[in-house]
Amino acid sequence: MSIWTDVSAEGVQRQIAVNIVMVHIFSGFTLWDSIVSLPYEWHLFQGKRGCKWGAYTFYMNTRYLFLCSTITTLVFVDMYAEKFVRSLGTFFQISGHISNGFAYAILALRLLIIWRRDFVALIMILCQLALWASTFAAFPRVIDGFQERNSNIRLISTLLAVSSIMLVCAFSGLVHAYRHHIARLSCRGVFIEDGFLPTISRYSEMLWREGFQYFVVVWCGVLAEAVVRYMHVDQTGLLQFTFEFVRLQYRPALLVQPEAAQAQ
C-alpha cells in the first residue's frame, strides 16, 4: 500500500500511472464484452430472443449508460495530465452510478424469481428505494468530477448493506429451493448419494449454475471499496477513484450478460 500513501510529487505520479493502467485494462474488457454481445442484443430487439420488456429496459439502460460512462472515463483519464475537464468527470460519475442502480435492479429481479414471496419483494423494494435515494443524494456532492468524502461514505455504506442483504437472500433462497427439489426427487424414488463431499459438490454446482457467483463478486467488490474508504488509507483520492471505477465497471458487465437478461 506504500504507493497509495506516498503523497510526494513522484508518488502521486506513480498513482496516476497505475490508475491509468487500471482504467484501460477494465475499459478494454468492457468494450470487448459490449462488442461480443451485439448479436444477442440485435436478436433481442427483433424479438427473436425471449425477454420481458421490463427486464429489457433494465438491461439496455444498464448496458448503454455503462458504456457511455466507460468511454467518458477513458477520455477524462487520458486528458487528465494535460487538461482537467470538469464536465466529463461529472458525467461519468452520474452515468456510472445510474447504470449501477439499474444493475442492482437486475439482481433484485433475480431474487424475486428465486423466492416468489411477497416479503422478499418488499425487502427488494426497500433496498432499491434506499439505493436510489443515496445515489441521487450523492449527485449534488460531485465536486470537480469527484465525490465529496462523506457523501461517498454514505453511498458505500448503503451499497454494502444492500449487497449483503441480497447475498444472504440469494444463498438462502437457492438452498431452500434446492432442498425442496431434492426432497421431491427422494419421494419419487430417485437415488440421491449421501455424504458430506457429494452434498457439498451438488450444492456448489447448483449455486454456480444459478448465478450465485454474481452476488458474491458484487459483494466482495463493494466490501473492498468500503474497507479502503473506512480505513482512510487513501490520501490523494486516486485509490478510491480506481476502486470506484473498477466497481462501476465489473458490476454492470457481470449483471447484463445475455443469459441474465434472457432468464428474466
UniProtKB/TrEMBL annotation:
The chain crosses the membrane at residues 20-42, 63-81, 87-107, 119-143, 155-178, 212-231. Keywords: Membrane, Transmembrane, Transmembrane helix. This is Uncharacterized protein.
